[in-house]
Amino acid sequence: MKWVFATIYSIGLYTICFALYMVCQCDMYRYDSNYIGSGGIALGLNAQAWEIIAISLAITTLAFGIVNYIVGIRSALSKTPTVRNTNELRRIMMFSKLTSVPFFIINFIISALVSIGVSMVIIVTLPIVLLIFTCISFLTMCFTSAYSVSTIVSSKKLGMISNAEVVIFTILQYVFIADIISSIVLFFMLKSRSKQL
Fold first, then answer.
1. Mean pLDDT of the chain
2. CA proximity to 190, closest of 103, 81, 91
3. What SS3 string covers the chain?
4. Could you count the other beta carbons within 10 Å of the beta carbon of residue 89?
């Protein structure tokens, strides 16, 4: 069940990107009929239809992100974790983190392009646009960190990591880029330590 929520959430992130891309394609075609892109046909939908799809996907993905976070944290609160369960959480943690990397890259590129476009038109709105993209990125990072925190707590209960490591790894899960690096380090550290149990 944990894998299902993690997978649906990851797929949802990319479907939002696709829908937003289609909105841009339709808008480009609307302003320049000579524009060669998929916006002319856009699967028979106009920009407004793709905007509705993008908003619907965003709400659905947010809902799955919340469910994903709850399921991940609930896993951490289980009474007595086993090495097998902890290893499963560890694998889900890596899946969630690594599948989100391209999303963060796409999000960064889109936010940079939108920021450049907005700053050329109305410089006053630039901080608002940057704040929106930062909030989206932080929420996404928090949702993908659920299984990381769950893995950390479960590993602590099994005596696989120390109190200091718990504090360090948990803090790093809420810092951009450091969350990915610390998850990779944690993954391999726990992999070697689980063999010793």
1. 79
2. 91
3. CHHHHHHHHHHHHHHHHHHHHHHHHHHHHHHCCCCCCHHHCHHHCCHHHHHHHHHHHHHHHHHHHHHHHHHHHHHHCCCCCCHHHHHHHHHHHHHHHHHHHHHHHHHHHHHHHHHHHHHHHCHHHHHHHHHHHHHHHHHHHHHHCHHHHHHHHHHHHCCCCCHHHHHHHHHHCCCCCHHHHHHHHHHHHHHHHHHHC
4. 27
In tens, the pLDDT along 18-42 reads: 776 666 666 555 555 554 454 444 5
Calpha distance 47→65 (Å, rounded): 26
| Closest alpha carbon to 149 in 136, 131, 168 | 168
Q: Which two tokens stand for residue 61?
A: 């993905």
pTM score of the predicted model: 0.77
174, 97 Cβ separation under 8 angstroms: no
